[in-house]
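User:
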Amino acid sequence: MRRTDRRRSLGFEEVAISERILAAAGLKTHLHAYGTNIEGDWDRVFAAVKQCHQALHTAGVPRISTSMRFGTRIDREQTMEDKVRSVEDKLTS
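Assistant: Predicted structure:
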């Protein structure tokens, strides 16, 4: 998410607001320098993102733009940690 008004990006407090909402929704997250990875049920993820927007608007952020990328798979379970571990394993072999 990023602000689209005069400030170019969300401040630390706005990011913290969103992180609290995602945690309260019971979603698995990984905060990093360029955003947050979110893992969870499709409907719960979208509901939480909507709550983030609503909370940020309530906090005085007039415009927000959110960029999201999605990955789904039905052949097996795979977590964020599984994906990272797979690459790390290839690096050490």
